[in-house]
Design goal:
Blueprint lengths: L1 H4 L2 H6 L11 H7 L8 H8 L8 E2 L11 H9 L6 H6 L3 E5 L2 E6 L1 E2 L2 E2 L1
């Protein structure tokens, strides 16, 4: 999956360019008050936006123990947005890269999981 995420095509698609990312204790201190704050209303507003260029991607790593997929799925199931029924009935599709299964994607309007 890392190989896919580092491709120019993928990085361009998610608008990260050639930016490098790192973590530090300093960032943790500044983000401390945001960790438990809800963004549900913000996400719903973006999903219901009339701007077709607004798309939302939720990515869960297979081994992520902090924000595991079931938690993300539960959050998304409880959103109130115009594509909720589509999301609830949509099936997860396979994502292949170089003929290897790399993940799954579920789409409902401008929401990608």
């Amino acid at each position: 999956m890392v190989e896919l995420f580092n491709t120019t095509t993928f990085r361009k698609a998610v608008h990260v360019g050639n930016t490098t990312y790192d973590t530090s204790v300093t960032e943790d201190v500044f983000l401390k008050n945001d960790i438990m704050g809800s963004v549900k209303g913000n996400i719903e507003n973006i999903l219901d936006s009339r701007n077709p260029s607004y798309r939302v991607l939720f990515y869960s790593g297979q081994l992520d123990v902090i924000v595991a997929y079931p938690f993300t799925e539960n959050f998304l199931r409880n959103l109130d947005f115009g594509g909720k029924e589509t999301y609830l009935t949509a099936s997860r599709e396979f994502v292949y890269y170089k003929n290897e299964l790399k993940g799954y994607v579920k789409k409902a309007k401008n929401l990608y999981e």
